[in-house]
């Protein structure tokens, strides 16, 4: 049974259709990503589930109970917003206590529960600090703790890590995954930058214009995106694409067995799945191409290549890979199963 079920949800703000006939199931105990560009309806969907807004049409079921018209305080949901939203005059422990205080829980019990939560989030040394004295990561952890203090079954996250640096985002993602397992949580996590979240998610739903574009396990969407835009969204970097009419002048060589039938209009390649070789391979390839700038960045070396009609691509390679030198002519190769194929009408 899904923990969250949306059935034909629609929401309009004047002439704007923020969400249109949206249906999504979120399985119990999963980390489910809701992804899409700005203005696609992600945050509106979350607010509808939380009870902060109400739909114009459709139903919202939580644990098979219709909560469509229930107020937020009667729904089993924790909420973590994009901004931590800490009250400037309350200390960290008082921030954690606040939901318990609003529930009428006595001072002794709420302090004890807040301290347990602070310990779990490695925040005890900061218990009596005001928000101005907290780092970005500490403020984010406080917001997560505040959302969990009432022991909800569902936690809704509206891009809470968007303002943090990559290291903090990685640490908080790991913490969130641990908390999910520890408390048996169902997480619905909104983001428009899914690439660095996919590894920890169980399911990914992409919406555009308030409608579902594609839904499935993250690896499925990475391997078989329905559109070039979705391929860009789920990869490390934008795909290189070329229409079938331009294959020959862009030096694309495809053995017949490597091309689906009927032939799709657009070939897409992920830079992270490409390799360079000094000799023309028998596998699908592009070339010859000329090596341009070579830039080591952390665990990867980015090799810029140029060819055809002003074609340019940066390929990330492992630091130990033999990538040649600037000015060398090489071939780009890839495994046939890694090619992405799209029709011309795909956006």
Précis, in short:
This protein is 22% helix and 33% strand. It is α+β, with helices and mostly antiparallel strands and 347 residues long.
Number of DSSP-assigned strands: 19
Largest sheet: 6 strands, mixed
Can you list the strand order of the major beta sheet?
6-7-8-3-9-10
Q: What is the CATH topology descriptor of the largest domain?
A: Rossmann fold
Strand content: 25-35%
N-to-C SSE string, H for helix and E for strand: EEEHEEEHHHEHEEEHHEEEEEEEEE
Annotation field: number of helices: 7
Number of domains: 2
- The gross shape turns out to be globular
CATH class of the largest domain: Alpha Beta
**Rg measurement, Å:** 24 Å
Query: Helicity range of the residues?
Result: 10-25%
Describe this structure as you would to a colleague.
With 347 residues, the chain is α+β, with helices and mostly antiparallel strands. It has two domains: 2-233, 3-Layer(aba) Sandwich (Rossmann fold); 238-342, OB fold (Dihydrolipoamide Acetyltransferase, E2P), CATH 2.40.50. It is built from seven helices and 19 strands. The strands form four sheets. It has a six-stranded mixed beta sheet with strand order 6-7-8-3-9-10, with helices on both faces. Strands 12, 14, 15, 16, 17 and 18 form a six-stranded antiparallel beta sheet that branches. A four-stranded antiparallel beta sheet has the order 2-1-4-5, with helices on one face. Strand 1 (2-13) and strand 2 (16-27) form a beta hairpin. Helix 2 (92-102) packs across helix 3.
């Amino acid at each position: 049974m899904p923990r969250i079920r949306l059935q034909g949800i629609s929401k309009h703000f004047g002439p704007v259709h923020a969400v249109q006939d949206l249906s999504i199931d979120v399985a119990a105990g999963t980390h489910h990503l809701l992804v899409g560009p700005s203005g696609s309806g992600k945050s509106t969907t979350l607010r509808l589930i939380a009870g902060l807004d109400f739909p114009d049409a459709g139903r919202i079921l939580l644990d098979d109970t219709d909560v469509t018209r229930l107020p937020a305080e009667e729904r089993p949901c924790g909420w973590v917003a994009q901004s931590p939203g800490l009250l400037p005059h309350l200390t960290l422990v008082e921030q954690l206590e606040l939901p318990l205080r609003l529930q009428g829980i006595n001072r002794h019990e709420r302090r004890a529960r807040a301290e347990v939560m602070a310990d779990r989030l490695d925040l005890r040394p900061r218990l009596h600090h005001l928000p101005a004295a907290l780092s970005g990561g500490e403020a984010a952890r406080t917001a997560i703790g505040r959302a969990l203090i009432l022991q909800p079954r569902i936690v809704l996250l509206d891009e809470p890590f968007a303002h943090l640096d990559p290291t903090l985002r990685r640490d908080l993602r790991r913490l969130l995954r641990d908390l999910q397992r520890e408390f048996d949580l169902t997480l619905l996590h909104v983001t428009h930058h899914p690439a660095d979240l996919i590894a920890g998610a169980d399911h990914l739903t992409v919406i555009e214009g308030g409608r579902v574009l594609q839904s499935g396990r993250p690896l499925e969407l990475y391997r078989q995106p329905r559109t070039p835009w979705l391929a860009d969204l789920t990869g490390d970097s934008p795909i290189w694409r070329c229409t079938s009419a331009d294959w020959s002048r862009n030096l694309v060589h495809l053995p017949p067995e490597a091309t689906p039938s009927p032939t799709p209009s657009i070939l897409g390649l992920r830079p992270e799945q490409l390799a360079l070789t000094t000799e023309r391979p028998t596998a699908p390839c592009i070339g010859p191409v000329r090596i341009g700038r070579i830039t080591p960045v952390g665990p990867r070396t980015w090799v810029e290549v140029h060819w055809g009609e002003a074609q340019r691509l940066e390929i990330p390679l492992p630091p130990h890979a033999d990538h040649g030198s600037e000015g060398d002519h090489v071939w780009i190769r890839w495994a046939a199963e890694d090619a992405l194929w799209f029709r011309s009408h795909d956006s």
